[in-house]
Amino acid sequence: MPFNIHQSLFDKDGLPREKAVEQYKEELAKLFFESPEGQALLDEGIEPGWSDMIVDFGMNYFSVTPANMTPDNLQEILFGLFPRKVSAEADEAPGVIREMQYFWKFMEREFHLKNAAACLKILDDNAVNTLKKQMSNPANFGIAKSFVMMGAEQGFDMGTEEGIQSWMETYNAGITAGTQPRIPLPGEHRRSTGSIRDKIKIVSPNRNKMAKASRRKNRKKK
User: Fold this and answer.
1) The pTM is what?
2) Spatial distance between the Cα atoms of 52 and 204, rounded to a whole number of angstroms
């Protein structure tokens, strides 16, 4: 059965229906990966993966799919949520924007989405510099991303559970001893309660790498 880009994925309260959402994201990612646009992206040395995050953020923060995502939604995801939530270096920005360009071209060609052209306008020549600037500014980081980036800067492997645990123990010991600066927060009035581990629910480069590895494996089977 053909993929329905317009299918309903949310309950009456606007919350994603988990099983339907996961199937939707998996099928859409596969279609994009196998599309001419996805293959062109591969030819440029970029494997699809960031578009999965765009779709995920759209569903979880705005209750929208690509079919009804507005340019304002896309702008907030790219320049607001990405810098705050995605623990990746700023030099990833060109690859993110390039994939977004191919993704929305795919949306326009394959599904004739009326919002695709408007979303592509967000991805103009200034988008890379804007995203790079936002992703390199620690003031934009949420507490979880700040924790991950600080650990990575100190040499811990924040793509593994062991690395996170080791950095957390080191961080807590440093705080107790008074030798470790605390994690900087976007605003002191927004200081939150609870453990740091409870808040490490962000998209990290490791997730993107796992998606890419899975697709490379599937590609070899063809």
Assistant:
1) 0.71
2) 12
